[in-house]
Design brief:
about 100 residues, mainly alpha, DUF5805
Length: about 100
């Protein structure tokens, strides 16, 4: 994972934490296992004869990268972060 990929991951995780409207921070389902990731894995397995680990990772990572890219672009458009080539990654604009 490159430094920019790591940063994108952390930004998305932070946004997810801020956007969580549920009071307990978790699922309101009766089953604590009602995780969206588990649902997606189950869906992929249901669609195929057999799904390899690499196929699962490739599909889920690709979708996650798209979400990260959208989050980073949104933050850059809002002037919250920017890419600094000298530092080799994204930096906060709050300090500027």
């Amino acid at each position: 994972m490159t430094q920019s990929e790591f940063l994108r991951t952390m930004v998305q995780a932070g946004r997810r934490g801020f956007l969580d409207d549920s009071p307990d921070g978790g699922s309101s389902d009766a089953t604590p296992r009602g995780d969206a990731l588990e649902d997606r894995v189950q869906s992929m397995v249901d669609e195929g004869d057999a799904v390899s680990w690499d196929e699962l990772v490739a599909q889920l990572a690709g979708d996650f990268e798209d979400r990260i890219d959208t989050a980073v672009q949104s933050l850059a458009d809002d002037g919250v972060i920017r890419f600094d080539p000298r530092r080799g990654g994204y930096v906060s604009q709050a300090d500027e």
